[in-house]
Records
---
Amino acid sequence: MLATKRTVIGQMIVCQGCCCGATHKDRPPVPADWLKDEWRRRGLLKRFQFTVSGCVGPCDVPNVVVVNSETGSKWLGHITQFNQYRSLVDWAVHCVEAGHLIELPREFKDHLMEPWR
């Protein structure tokens, strides 16, 4: 079995594909460059992976974010405000400090979704 040299606690995947962040389709922007820069600036990459994906679906929900860990995946949808992305970065910092994924901030309770229904 292959193993990484790093101890990774999770991975955040931000969709920026055919619909998510497609401002020309009247969808809210995804601050992908800011997120990448912030992830690096805060030193998160070695412990909490970050990926901008072309599409994770489902495309009827704008601005999807997926958080993967050894315990499973959490899907968030309708992440439309810059402050929400800032809150996710702050949450990732707290997770790295704790050494494991902690509960998502309450503000995302109504953004949790089940894409495989």
---
Amino acid sequence: MTTEVQLCNLALSQLGVTEQIASVGTGTLAEVTATGLKVDLCNQWYAYSRDEFLKAYPWRFARKFATLALADDGTGEIWRFEWANAYTYPTDCLQLRRFVNDLGGGSWGYGEPYNASEFAGADLSWRYVVRVHDGDKVILTDVSEVDADMEYTEKVTDLDRWDGNPSAVTSLMWLLGHRLAPGLSLGRDLSIHCWQMYQQEVRAARALDGNEDNPHPAGRDGGSYIAARGSD
């Protein structure tokens, strides 16, 4: 089990910092009572780096499915001319991935380029945009309430969830080291080295993450994707 303080200490050790942060309680940074530059920098950059890492890829350990809550049906709203509904943005969501439907086969919305010609004539009601409406973050879309099932990347703060992919933990360590080095006045070269190690380790983490996935092909149930291509 890796804790926040342990991960920060690992990052510091890779930077050649021998004086570590003392771990107390369950090892969260919020429990650390010590003060100083190292603690301040870790508090400043840890959560930022963690969320940056999670958002960059649909990690298996952070995937979550949820039915969205309708926030507004568009009646009387200016955006009703472009979108049918507004759904509440999940509070634990870092990155929306896709509406669960027959177009994706388990992988739609994971950063693959959208080929307009390939999907010509397909049902595009699954498209969406993220906006602020009445002061709240919402998802504007034409998707109906009965179909409003979304897959997204959850803000996973419990590192126990990460331990199934050791390279993910190591990647976060290097990314955090990259962020900490300038503040500790350790030089640009060391910061660049940490970034290069992060890029190397994150490739290994993605490969490991994908080893347990075997997604359905697009249009597996004869849905709108197949219909768009004229198949029977």
